[in-house]
Structure formats: C-alpha cells, structure tokens
Design goal:
451 residues, alpha/beta, Rossmann fold, 2 domains, two-stranded antiparallel sheet, 11 strands, 12% strand
Length: 451
C-alpha cells in the first residue's frame, strides 16, 4: 500500500449512502499518512483524518493485510472536545487486531458526553470513510468496548442498508466488557451510590455548599475537581488507605456504603466520578434539565439507618424516554453477535450480559448471540489469547456458519495461548451464566421506561 492510497481524496459514494434510519454523510475528506501510535506493528501504515462532523479518525492497515476490517467503538465516554490522542490510545490498546492482520478504523466521536446515537453516527461515518479510500473489505467486524459496546450495539441496529452487492455494512459484532443495559438500566446503581454515599458521608455536597438534587450530578459552574472529590471520599471512608489504617468509623462507613450499593471497593471513587460529571452531562445536555433517575421505592441494605436517610427522587417520564431512545439497545442486530465479559468486572457489571441476552431474545435474535465469560477481575483489557480466540470464533461463524460454543472457544484458547501470551492467558468459564441485574441493583419503576 503506497502513500498515494492514503492521501487520495475520497471519490466514492459513501457520502450518498442513505440508511434505513437516516443518513450519515461521509463527505469529501482524507486521512493523511501519520506515524503509527506506540505498540502498532512496524509494518503497519497509519493515517489520521477529521471527518465532516469534526471527529478525528485513525486508520491502521498492517502488511500483510488480511482484507478484513475492524471498526472500533471506544468506551468512556470522554466529556471534552474530540482529541486525536484518544483514538491513538485505542489503536495501541487494541493492537492485537493489527497484529492479527486486520485493518482498524477508530473514531474519537465528534462530541464528548453520554450521547450514544451521535457516537454511533460517528462510528458508521468512519467505516464509510475507510471504504471510500480503500474499498470494501472482504469482511467488516464491528468491535465495541465498555460504553462503546453499547454504541456498537446501536450502530449495528441502526445502519442496516445493504450496498449494491446486497451486503450489510457489518458482517458481525464483537462486544467486550460491555455496558449493555442501555440508559434505562445501566446507570441506576450510580444514582443509588450518590444517595447512599450522601446519607452516610454528607460531604457531596457539603453542608457549606449550595444544595442541589443529586440526580443533577453537579450544578453547572461548580468548581469541584475529581481530586477534591477523591479526598472527600477518602476522608469519610479511608478507601485509599490499607484496611488496617482506617479508623473504626471510616471502616464502618465504607462497609455500609458497599453493602447498600454493590460496587467493588477499588472502583468506589471512579463510580462516584461517573455519577457526578457524567450525570451532569446527561441532565444538562441530554434531558433538558429533567431527571431521568429514580430512587423512589428502592430498598437498600442497611435497614432504617440507611433507608430513612437517603434522598428520594422520582424520574421525569419525558427524560426517561428521551434518554432511553438515545441509548437503549433494541436487540435488532441482523448479524452474529459475540460478547466477552469478565465475571468480576469492577466497572461494567457482568449482570448486564443477562439483560442484553433478554434484549436480544425479545427482538427475536437470541440465536444470533453467543456470550463468553472469563475468570478475570479487570475491565479495560483481559488477555491477548482470549481476544484472539473470540475473534477467530466469530470469523468462523461468519465464514463457515459454525456457531461458536463457550466450550469450543475455551478449548481453542489453549492452542492460541503459546503464540500470544505464554503465562495464564486463557481463563474462559464455559459453564458460567450471569445472574439477573436485579440481584445486584434493586429494580425500580420509572415512568416512560420502555417495557
């Protein structure tokens, strides 16, 4: 592949694609040859562009190229303006795809914040831009990680127009460590965390700060920083200290919070961050200032000492419906879907996979879904051997029609492991079935919530 291929102006008809649910225009633009981010194989050629909506996108094509493309939907979401470094970091983290011979295209998304449909548009636009510059790959796999798994699920549902040869935009979907409960279910536990934490610690906000309903996340213009919030949490609970260094009062407060809201100790501060600044983004930018969350009728572990103190909020029906319309997957994905999730994922709980299975089944697409689970306790990355095994299984599904089974994938991983990660890289648990989300996050009724 020469530099001319990378720099020529887009001429193809991607900008004219009219999609079943609207259109995404891949207007004339080009990705310029750019040194690859760290970790990418030396024989790979990379390019960086900016699409018509303002999103940066990276393209990486290895040599040799297997003529297959991975379209990557990144997690987060980030709250700031798009930054090309974000997708560069994604190429580095997921260099396993280029090492396997896949080309990769990855968008930064053109806006920050909790906006799933907008991000899905950006993902599809990046695919169109790749096609316009390099032609249609033999196969296209859509990969979504974390929050990006929800983006990828929506992308696969929304963009289903076939091309002149009758091909769908995506041949298959791989969702890893996915936030797959949509807006309706994925965020409830962070609302619970906000009210329980405040009932126990009373410092977010503090008594000397202007009060606000906790579902706002944080008032616009508030000066609180993440470092300041972390200091408050540590002062109240000692969560950043070794257990032996906590005072009895800190230990009791931490135990009360973790019993009522089943988040791991090590991600308590992170989840409070997301329940602060992400909630601020949701309410101020997505639901027109209305409340999409509810704590009314929710019973928390801890008895009256907790339940009599937590703030009770009733969701606004329009806000719930608006948020759900943007972010809830429908399950109407017309191609094979493979998910992989750590059983002890501390960020996106594994119980979300049970929710997603029911979503696919309600849409009549349950047989198009295979779910893999690993005995890991990480979120951002599991192991090369496990991702390679999953991708090979997904490729065999679309190439030969061989529907993978968790047992077969686990067995194949033993052969893959020596090539990619000699030490302890295969931790599939074929027999694992995730429990319902309600076993971890108390269910609740919200007006306007999809049935």
């Amino acid at each position: 592949m020469t530099g001319g291929h990378l720099t020529r102006t887009v001429r193809r008809a991607a900008a004219l694609l009219v999609l079943a649910t609207g259109s995404v225009s891949a207007q004339a633009t080009r990705a310029e040859p750019t040194p690859c981010p760290d970790g990418i194989p030396a024989t790979t050629q990379c390019a960086l562009g900016k699409d018509s909506a303002g999103a940066f996108y990276w393209i990486a094509i290895p040599s040799p190229w297997n003529k297959r493309l991975v379209v990557h939907a990144h997690g987060g979401p980030d709250l700031g303006a798009p930054d090309a470094k974000g997708s560069a970091d994604d190429l580095t983290r997921w260099n396993i795809w280029t090492r396997m011979g896949f080309a990769v295209v990855a968008s930064t998304y053109h806006q920050g914040g909790v906006a799933v449909r907008s991000a899905a548009d950006d993902v599809e636009r990046s695919r169109q831009l790749f096609v316009a510059q390099f032609g249609v790959p033999e196969r296209t796999i859509l990969h979504g990680q974390s929050w990006g798994a929800g983006v990828a699920a929506r992308t696969a549902e929304l963009f289903v127009a076939r091309d002149a040869q009758g091909r769908l935009p995506y041949d298959a979907v791989l969702l890893t460590s996915g936030v797959l409960g949509g807006a309706s279910l994925s965020y409830d536990f962070r609302m619970d965390l906000r009210v329980v934490y405040q009932a126990v610690c009373g410092d977010h906000p503090r008594a000397d700060e202007p009060p606000y309903p906790l579902w706002q996340g944080l008032p616009v213009g508030a000066k609180l920083t993440r470092a300041q919030l972390a200091d408050r949490v540590d002062t109240c609970t000692g969560v950043r200290k070794p257990a032996a260094a906590r005072s009895p009062e800190q230990a009791q407060r931490l135990a009360t919070i973790l019993a009522a809201v089943k988040v791991p100790e090590r991600t308590l501060i992170a989840h409070l961050n997301w329940g602060t600044w992400h909630f601020q983004d949701i309410v101020t930018k997505r639901t027109n200032g209305a409340n999409p969350f509810t704590t009314t009728g929710v019973a928390y572990a801890g008895g009256a000492a907790v339940n009599d103190q937590v703030a009770r909020y009733a969701a606004d029906s329009v806000a719930v419906a608006t948020f759900a319309a943007d972010a809830d997957p429908t399950g109407r994905i017309p191609v094979p879907v493979l998910t992989m999730h750590a059983i002890d994922d501390p960020t996106a709980f594994v119980e979300l996979e049970e929710t997603f299975r029911r979503t696919m089944e309600r849409a009549g697409r349950g047989t198009a879904l295979v779910q893999l689970f690993t005995q890991d306790s990480e979120h951002s990355y599991l192991s090369d051997a496990q991702y390679v095994s999953a991708m090979r299984a997904l490729s065999a599904w679309i190439e030969q029609g061989t529907v993978p089974t968790p047992t077969a994938v686990a067995a194949s991983c033993a052969n893959v492991e020596p090539m990619y990660e000699p030490a302890k890289g295969c931790r599939f648990v074929p027999s694992y079935v995730p429990p319902p989300l309600a076993s971890r996050v108390p269910s609740r009724t919200k007006p306007g919530m999809p049935k």
